[in-house]
């Protein structure tokens, strides 16, 4: 087969690997170019090394609903390769999966490396040719084909070219935003790039004292500068040296993209299962039990030990006040503090720390049924490089797999 009749896939992440294997499974000659020595470096980090590959929600509409930015663009991609198809695909490759809380699907082994290994097996089965190389430039001419130029001077001609270079976050995994440049150079609009699913920095410094503390069953309420409720959620969050992170904080950050983040505040309800009255009664019982102790030593049944010194400080009740001398007003203040532990938000962490990049190649310029560029025929896009993004829970990887599959199904290796 002449060289210009092959398909070239740029980027060996989730989207690129599935695109390459799918195109090759159709009998096409496929070359996959990845700048790292190994494929799927970001995949290895996903789901804290366990890789939450997709979500078990039932219908395509649920996937679209969990994709707040340009979800509707993905109907065809989700339809062509759904979460059920993805699970079947991995099972066929020998990767068993399980469903956890919130419908999150993981490999039974809890190892992201097994997901990468399954994808590598798929590439091998379909005889995809892989090379290590950093792509510097892509040129495509309709019906003639394209050229992929590598930094080291090598040039690879190909018929159709799939750009699956990912976003801008976690650049040490290889996703340094090169695909946005390739898109622009081929006539595309790239919408503003911003971090999404990103930890939040706080003005208050006390979260640093709690660094590493995860709170499992808390409720959060995110307010804008005029105290309008923007988002509320229940689940797990984490304190860090800069502020707050963890699943419900990352989800909350998606609601801040178009809002002046530095004017927002976050209220944490540390005891969402109890009403203020119930919590007050509970504290009174604890105080009675600890009647002869100092205030600071009376909270161990109620709070994790790391949190106690911070709460004591914020409560403005003297740590060494005997608990039987804590006044009713002070106790009510404590209840209020535990129900609305408030932090002033300073901003997002840098985009490098985002789980995904918001913004990307404009969806209006991509055919949603094929993932082919409407501007430069022969150029395809798949995965995070496209201006779509979803919530946590496996939705972002499903987007990478569904769009990669669709591009792999529709690219051509022969002259038309
Ligand atoms: C810490 C973390 C945890 C996450 N956990 C989850 C999770 O559990 N579930 C979930 O659904 N999503 C998760 N995500 C998001 C998910 O990882 C991404 O949505 C997904 O990896 C996007 O896939 P992609 O193939 O488009 O891009 P990537 O996976 O980023 O792959 C792009 C590839 O292109 C290569 N490349 C880039 N430029 C060039 C070039 N010029 N030449 C050659 N190669 C190039 C890169 O080296 C890279 O290998 C997580 C993200 C992070 C950062």
The end-to-end distance, rounded to whole angstroms, is: 15 Å
Please state the structural category. alpha+beta
Number of extended strands:
19
Unique bound compounds:
flavin-adenine dinucleotide
The pLDDT mean sits at 95
Radius of gyration: 25 Å
Please give the CATH architecture of the largest domain: 3-Layer(bba) Sandwich
Question: Count of DSSP helices?
Answer: 12
Q: Which stretches are low in confidence, meaning pLDDT under 50 for 5 or more residues running?
A: none
Strand order of the largest sheet: 12-15-14-13-16-17
Work out the oligomeric state of the chains in this entry: single chain
Give the helix proportion (percent range): 25-40%
The biggest sheet, with number of strands, parallel, antiparallel or mixed sense and barrel status, is: 6 strands, antiparallel, barrel
Strand residue content: 15-25%
CATH superfamily of the largest domain: FAD/NAD(P)-binding domain
Tally of discrete structural domains: 2
Shape: elongated
CATH topology of the largest domain: FAD/NAD(P)-binding domain
CATH class bucket of the largest domain: Alpha Beta
